[in-house]
Amino acid sequence: MAVGYLEILRTRHAARLLAGTLVGRLPNITGAMAVMLFVRAEGGSYSLAGALVAVYGVANAVGQPVLGRLVDLHGQPRVQLAAALVSALGMVGFAFTGVEPLAAAYVFVAVAGLFTPPLEGGLRALWPSVLRKDEQVHRAYAMDAVAQEVMFTVGPLLVTLSVSLWSARAALVLLNVIGVLGALSVVVSAPSRAWRSAPREAHWLGALRSPGLLVMLSAFLFVGIALGSITVAAASYADSRGGDAVYGWLMAGLGLGALVGGTVYGARQWSGAPERRLRVLVALLAVCYLPLMLVPGPVAMTALSVLAGVFLAPCIACSFVLVDRHAPRGTVTEAFSWLVTTFMVGSSFGTGLAGPVVEAGGALWGFVVPGAAGGVSLLVLLVTGRVLVVPRGGAVVAVAAENDPNRAVEPRFSSGDRA
Questions:
Q1: Distance (Å, rounded) from C-alpha 391 to C-alpha 273?
Q2: What is the C-alpha separation between 338 and 217, in angstroms, rounded?
Q3: How many helices (H) and strands (E) does the chain have?
Q4: DSSP class of 269
Q5: Rounded Cα–Cα distance for residues 261 and 306 (Å)
Q6: Distance between CA atoms of 296 and 200, rounded to whole angstroms?
Q7: 22: which residues sit within 8 A by CB, 6+ positions away?
């Protein structure tokens, strides 16, 4: 298992791009928590903190596909670095201005979210130009998904440590400075500077004119809803079973499950169509949510949360392959950015949906939501199965050498419509 991942990391530029992207995304990963702690440190209410976090999240969701399209049009360095600097300045402005005047706080937070650089989509666009084989690219997608789970665990710890050692304001500033350095590390690399998107057909819908991509986004909207609803249901469960410590264990269990599942998935070479594989993975994801409705004691519940997370990273990794296949020519970064946005919107909607459900029926009914959302996601994939099938000669696998005219196109795929 380790050999496959080491082979990727030993490839020139691969480790740097992965590490730089993860570090560059640190402000985004920790943004909601850092803003919440800062507002509370400034004497603001939970309502104000929640409103600012919501503005940040909505602005982020709007900005990702827009910036992704600009990356496809103008290249990575010019857009990614400028966006990272503006986003960091927005958050630093918020850190030094505070919550008064309130209008300025909302503007600064909105700017920080809107200009968050699409490093996540940018990395996935770079993998084909860095790695030589299609199985390496697919493994890199899995490694990418696993690394995100690690950062979602490490990031909050860094926020807590920074606040403990210095202050909530210092944490905001420090994390955003680190984020700019991570983005800088990516955009000055040779693959990022050399990368150019394929010529694209001018169309106001951009990547969204692809029916296959729309199917993927629809399915993963419900996966996001499932994940967002679990966080609320788990909080309700923990309130009556031990408080914050139990909640922390449940969330850690989800992350651990995703980490293990993604690691195992990426270590194997998979045969067969990824469309069918994704349907199986989403079905397993939905099935593994169902035992959470048993709501046993904390130890058993933690074990069930690990099981619930096992198929999340494999689903995400497999979706990357299909998004790359279905992205219209010249829109690959935008397409990946839409996937990020859809997942964020779904997660936020799931959080909002689970709240009233938990208040009305308790944690048990809260855990019904992720199982139902997973089932709907599977239903979307089953009903639209033919849309996801790439016509023969109509698409290119992720490893099509868009940036290397001297490299042969991989067999079994056409070079006529690169994403």
A1: 12
A2: 8
A3: 19, 0
A4: P
A5: 10
A6: 53
A7: 147, 148, 150, 151, 182
